[in-house]
Design brief:
A hairpin with a 7-residue loop joins strand 2 and strand 3. The protein has a five-stranded antiparallel sheet, with helices on one face. Helices cover 23% and strands 21% of the residues. The chain has a single domain, classed as HIT-like (HIT family, subunit A, 2-Layer Sandwich). The chain is globular and about 40 Å long. By secondary structure, it is an alpha+beta fold. Bound molecules: guanosine-5'-monophosphate and zinc ion (ZN). The site of zinc ion has 6 residues, from helix 1. Zinc ion binds at residues 1, 4, 6-7, 46, 97.
Length: 116
C-alpha cells in the first residue's frame, strides 16, 4: 500500500492539517473544504473501501463514528454535522482508503442528495 495517499498521510510522508488522532483513527481537514467544517476521519490501517471491510475492521469503524461529534464540535460545528462515506464508483469514492467526511458549520449543510 506504498502509494495510498491516506496511508502516506498516516505515516507523515504527506502533510495534513490533523485535528484528531488516537491509536486507531486519524482526522484531518479536507484539502478542498465544501463547508466551513470539512474533516476526513480515517482508519490508520488501510481499508480500501466499505466494500472491502471485514469483521476485523468493526472496532475501528465504530471508533470513527464514536469520535465524530467531538471532532465536529471542536472544529466549529457543535449543533450537528453530516457524515458521509462514499464507496466505489457508484458512491463517488475518489481516494481508495476508507474515509468519513464530517461536514458542517453554523448553518445547515443542505439537502442530503442533489436531485437527479
Ligand atoms: P471521496 O470523493 O473519495 O469521498 O473524497 C476524497 C476527499 O479527499 C475529497 O474531498 C478531497 O478534497 C480530499 N483529498 C484528496 N487529496 C487530499 C489530500 O492530499 N489531503 C487532504 N487533506 N485531502 C485530500
Ligand atoms: Zn491506505
Amino acid at each position: 500500500m506504498q502509494e495510498c495517499l491516506f496511508c502516506r498521510i498516516v505515516r507523515g510522508e504527506i502533510p495534513a492539517a490533523k485535528v484528531y488522532e488516537d491509536d486507531e483513527v486519524l482526522a484531518f481537514k479536507d484539502i478542498h473544504p465544501q463547508r466551513p467544517v470539512h474533516v476526513l476521519v480515517i482508519p490508520k490501517h488501510h481499508i480500501t473501501s466499505l466494500a472491502h471491510a471485514s469483521e476485523a475492521d468493526v472496532p475501528v469503524l465504530g471508533r470513527m463514528l464514536a469520535v465524530a461529534h467531538r471532532i465536529a464540535a471542536d472544529q466549529g460545528s457543535p449543533n450537528g454535522f453530516r457524515s458521509i462515506i462514499n464507496t466505489g464508483p457508484v458512491g463517488g469514492q475518489e481516494v481508495m482508503h476508507v474515509h468519513m467526511h464530517i461536514v458542517g458549520g453554523q448553518e445547515p449543510v443542505g439537502p442530503m442528495l442533489r436531485r437527479i
